[in-house]
Write a structure and sequence with these properties.
single chain, 5 helices
Length: 109
C-alpha cells in the first residue's frame, strides 16, 4: 500500500491533468464551484486538508487569462480575509499572475 507521500503525489498529478490544454471552457464553467469549495475547505478546521490545501488550490484554482478570471480571483481574496497566510499568499500570486497575463495579452497585435 502506498504511503501518504505517494498518495499526495498521485493526487497532484491528477489535479494537474484535470484541465489539460484545450479544456479552458470546462474550467471556466466550473470556476465558481471550484473557488467556493476552496474557500469552504479553507474555513473548516481540518488539519488533513491543510496539509495539502495549498497544492490543491494552486492546481485547481481557475486562472484563464481573462478579465472575468481576474475578477473572480479578486473576489476570492475578499472571501479569504481570514485564510492562513500561506494560502492567502498562494491565491494572491494566482491573482497577480492572471492579471499580468491579461495585461500582456492586451499588448499582442
Amino acid at each position: 500500500m502506498p504511503g501518504l507521500t505517494e498518495v499526495y503525489a498521485l493526487q497532484r498529478i491528477a489535479m494537474a491533468a484535470a484541465f489539460p490544454a484545450g479544456q479552458g471552457q470546462l474550467r471556466e464553467e466550473l470556476a465558481e464551484e471550484i473557488l467556493a469549495r476552496i474557500v469552504q475547505h479553507e474555513k473548516e478546521a481540518d488539519p488533513t486538508f491543510y496539509q495539502r490545501a495549498r497544492g490543491f488550490a494552486l492546481y485547481l484554482a481557475p486562472h484563464n487569462c481573462t478579465a472575468a478570471s481576474v475578477e473572480r480571483l479578486a473576489n476570492l481574496l475578499v472571501d479569504f480575509d481570514d485564510a492562513r497566510p500561506s494560502m492567502l499568499r498562494a491565491m494572491t500570486e494566482k491573482h497577480e499572475d492572471d492579471a499580468l497575463c491579461v495585461e500582456r495579452a492586451a499588448l499582442l497585435p
